[in-house]
């Protein structure tokens, strides 16, 4: 029985009902055998045959209803349903999905995604068909969609030269049978020779209905089926360019070596990773990375579209192709014709480069970019420094008051007016009256023995400047030892070529043992070892200059080598070397030198006064000062009474302004603290 649409059946039923009504009305007017007799079949058939609906729109279907004798009405379509037209966005999405499916079924995809099991499914299948559910599980397809209907739409979008769809529409296979044995043996590094970089690609139509889409255009131009097409973005923030002076990853990479060693330990063949192409996902901008089918195809493309062609050769080719493009089929000029892919490529300057060579050029470019950036930063620093010097010359900063003037002002202020109101108010804040009364009853503190009698006293908040030794004071006298800033001479030794794994404790232990062997009872003569881990130099502080000289003579006259953190080989040493320690000819002997002059002064200047005081009492020898300065009262010699009076008046005015400012701050109302 033929298919009969429901709309046609409804219309036929209405027509039969109207015909029966007409027959009944006519029978009422004329004599008949029976008023309840139904309408004749010929009348109904004639009424149904008269029904012929026509298409009211482009989407409707023209239907004819025919009637044979003693048969049901049959509906037949006069033309097929019109195909649904896709918008450009949906068309591009399906084209991307179809390209991903083609990439998975090509030789590169079967080898790269071997873990998905697609290669094994194709080999195990009788006709090499794979269900679309397995296609949805492939990583490139799963990243685009998880709907089987989308895959079916993409396969119907255009005929694929590499894929064949089953009649049912639910199975898929390759057009040609792949070489399963070859693909099983290939590894990612084997595809490096087939990867090339293409530049100056002409802007071809991107419509999927046209055979000149980008993938089809490149396949035709290179005479090879594309295994992979990568359009990288101009800048990928997740994968920034490599730092300069760092070569690209090779077989000697740490992870590569580790994977190889792990595979050898497990008895499996190690996987060679290869170079790895950049990340795709960018728009087409005239360049791309492609992977061809065989190594021979890549070599032929590199030879045909050489990278190092001169501009004259490219210009000549473009002119020749342009002249040929102006000829029509009859050889007449003036009628432009569509150019073939080769002509378009030559006209745009199309060229190819191996991917390995592209990586080398990228590293060279990054080195050059780093060099230019360094020069630019250096130029910017010089320009800013020059501008700062010019501004300093035009508007020099006012001279700072000398330290002697500051001390005199502080002394005059405290003698005449007492402490500053800021300090007095802040000090008395929150104190009880009994505290100040008890403090006033206390006797005044005596001045320290090492304090310096300066004009105006020392500057608040900073240590007093050491007073130089007088001509009548001996360097080794008790008075010199009590001087602030004095240090013992000849007690610091600089040692080089110590063991790099040493510590302060191990160095102090081994040097104390060596000193005990040189002079009995002097094992505690090493006061401190100034050492930083990982270095081969240190400073050793002895308790006296005699022990420092004794150790220096030993290192100078004997060849001592620091073979271990706790062992120093020496001809006079009676200690047994630790087990496993042998003489190392590559290790240099210890070199030592006593600090003298400015180097010794700078070393002691970085230590606190308590350390210097203990060191000079322990050494009980000649001392020197960390920093000698002239007396501050020498700068006031020759000052007249008028100058002194003017200076005191200025100091008094300054103090008056400070008191007025402090009173204003105290009278200013304070904000109440918030409850929240």
UniProtKB/TrEMBL annotation:
It comes from the Eukaryota. Residues 312-325, 402-416, 432-444, 642-668 have a biased composition (Basic and acidic residues). The keyword RNA-binding applies. GO terms for molecular function: telomerase RNA binding. Keywords: RNA-binding. Residues 19-43, 232-277, 312-344, 377-477, 611-676 are annotated as: Disordered. This is XRRM domain-containing protein. Pfam families: xRRM. One of its GO terms (cellular component) is ribonucleoprotein complex. Residues 486-642 form the XRRM domain. GO terms for biological process: telomerase catalytic core complex assembly. Residues 234-244 have a biased composition (Pro residues).
